[in-house]
Each structure stands twice: as C-alpha cells, then as structure tokens.
Amino acid sequence: MHINEQNDEHIMKLDSSIFNEMTFALLPNMDDSLIVTDHNNRIIYLNPRAIELIGTSLREAKDKKLRDLVRFQNAKTKEELCNASVEDELNRLGKISCHNMILHQNSRSSKYISLSVLPLSNNGKMFLLKDRTEIRNLEQELTNPAEYESIKLFMAGVVHDFNSMLTCILGYVSLVGRKMESFDVDDNKIVEWLQNSERGCHNAKELANKLMSYSKSGTVNKTDCSLKNIIEQTSGFICSRSNIECNIHFPKKPFPVKIDSTQISRVFNNLLINAVQSMPTGGQISIDVENCRLNKKSKVPIGEGKYIKISISDTGYGIDKRFQNKMFRSYFSHKNKGNGIGLLTCKKIIEDHNGHITFESNKGQGTTFYIYLPAENNNSPSNHFDSWNEA
C-alpha cells in the first residue's frame, strides 16, 4: 500500500469519528479570521476572530453576501477584488494568496490584511484573513525621519562614552611611558608596544570624533572636492584586500560638485564593502560616473537639473525580491551578520546632499546602486560638457 493511500485511509477514519470534533474545536480558536461562503457567495460561517475583525455577529452576517459587509482592495494597485476575479484566479491557480490587501468595512475603519482564498467542494469558498494593521503601522513608524534622529542621538551617546574610555586608556598609557623614561628602563620592545597602543588610541579617538560630528543633525561640510580621488582611494583600499577586480569609468569633463568628502567616502565605503562581501569567491565591481540632466519626465524623485550619477555594480549573489523594499530601514539586514545601519546611513548622507540613492538587484545576478549628487550651479543651462545624458 502506498503512503498516500495510507493517509487517505486515516482521513476516512477521522471523517466520521474524530474529524468533526477536531474541526469544531479548531475553528473557534484559530488566530486567523475565517469566513466561509456558499456557491452564491453568501456567508454561512464566521469564526470569532472574523466576527471581531468585521465588527458584526454571525446572526447579522448569515446569508448576507460577503460584499455587503466587506470589500477587498489591493493596497498597491488600489484595484478591488471582485467575485469574478476571484473565480478566475481560483480556476487558474486553485487558490489565492494576497499579502498586501486592504479590508474595507462598511461601518468601520479599514484594516491591512493578508488574504488567502480556497475553493470548497460545494462551490463555496473559504476566506482566511490575517490582520496586519499593527505591523503596517509599525513599518510606517520605522520609516519616519524621527526614527533616524533617535539613532543619531543614541550614536552620539555611545560615541561620547567611548571617547571617555579612550581618553582614560590613553592617559594611563602615556603615564607608563613617562614612568619608564624617568627610570631609564631600556626595553625597546615594551616602548614599541606602548607607542603602538598610544597610536591606536589616537586613531580610535579620531574616528569617535568623526562619528560625533556626524551625529549632529544635518551637519554637512560641503567643499569643492575631487569625486574621482575619493572613489579611487576608497575602492583601492577596499578592493586591494580581496580578489575583486574594480573598474572605474569617468567622463572627460565631469560636472563639478560640492560635497562633504568624509561623509561621501563613508557612502562609497559602505557600498563597496557590501559588494565585496557579496562575492566571497571573487568577482567584478564596476563604478560608472556620468553627467546627467533630470527633467519632469525623469523617474528619479528629486528636482530637475544637472547631476552626477554614480552607478556601483557588482557580480555578487544579489538581493532577494522579498527583502528589497526593506533595505533602507534601520536595523534591517538581509545578511546574517549585518546590523542594518550601513544603507540607512548612506541614504541619510545622500539626502543631506540633496541627492538620491536607489538600487536594482536580481538574486544570483548582482546588484547596482545608483547615486545622484547635484552638480554645482545645478540650474545653470547646459553648454560645453562632453558627456550629457537624459535620465
């Protein structure tokens, strides 16, 4: 006897004895809302969760058509899910799964839900609804600008404490060094170790000061900088320690830009480290810089004018589609050891420069980040520039 036949046999045994008892015990205690309709789309059953979600009673809802109580709308396309489209999808796929729906109630506020629809043998349907309203509200809160301010405030506190610890360590290291000199201790190795420790503390203190400077809201120190030098130095430092080939392309006469070189270096540093980490066995990084003009038809959500566009592409493992709309959220990372701060920091720095950052990726086919930085005298008319692209 095959396994499937054995399973069918057990189901048949449960059908008459235990199955009904299990069903009656399970349905009222489900965490999800359950609505069952007949072949005319009239409601024949609501479990307690569904009654709570819709705001009705089984007596009031029974024999009413589902559309008399609720309407389902796609949160992204705003299209309503009508009975005809449900029938078509069920005939084509056998079931419906929608994770981004809005439930409109006739007399109450709308709710965000995930929806599954399954056909029944009597030509009725079973609707499973999971209330995602609280999760949706939380997601919107996490994308609020105030969220980033709280991160910067927290970072400032951590940097302050870290700086205090470094000052203490540095003081004691210096004291030991002076004490050894006063006693004329002739141990070159110990002196060398102390000098290395002191140098390391100074470097860490410098980094802490940079972080403290950045934690100040909106602090951008823009100067005339060579974007080419910043990109070449950052990529050379990161890629030289890996088996990654990095190719950089610049236009003959790039638009001049005013940027905060320290902060923009951090952006390239974060993006290039991510690219290298996505190619553990080696690969290629391409950095393409071009002049471009954005106009009303451009799909980039920033003002019209002249921009420097920087494309950073890798041949790594890419980013799964289900993670892509979360990539710039704080504390979210699709990497096992990621902390979810790097890309959020990049986004904030670029936005502080009145620019824009976005990306494209396919799993297994690499990732490309696009950065737009406004050119100096952004609104001046085009003239002698050799490289000019409409974005």
How would you sum up the global shape? elongated
Q: Return the structural class.
A: alpha+beta
Q: State the name of the first-level CATH class of the largest domain.
A: Alpha Beta
Quaternary assembly? single chain
The number of domains: 3
Number of DSSP strand runs: 14
* Beta-strand residue fraction: 15-25%
Instruction: Give the proportion of residues in helices.
Output: 40-55%
How far is the N terminus from the C terminus?
Answer: 65 Å
The CATH architecture of the largest domain is 2-Layer Sandwich
Sum up the structure in keywords.
alpha+beta, six-stranded antiparallel β-sheet, six-stranded mixed β-sheet, 12 helices
Characterization of the model:
The longest helix is centred in the middle third of the chain and has 38 residues, at 145-182. The protein is built from twelve helices and 14 strands. α8 packs antiparallel against α9 (188-215). The strands form three sheets. Strands 2-1-6-5-4-3 form a six-stranded antiparallel β-sheet. With 391 residues, the protein is an alpha+beta fold.
Layout of helices and strands:
Layout (H helix, E strand, L loop, with lengths): L2 H14 L2 H8 L6 E5 L5 E4 L1 H7 L3 H4 L4 H4 E5 L8 H11 L2 E10 L5 E9 L5 E7 L1 H10 L2 H38 L5 H28 L7 E2 L2 H13 L4 E6 L8 E2 L1 H17 L5 E12 L10 E10 L27 H11 L3 E6 L5 E8 L14 E2 L1
Parallel strand pairs: 8-10, 10-14
Antiparallel strand pairs: 1-2, 1-6, 3-4, 4-5, 5-6, 7-9, 10-11, 11-13, 12-13
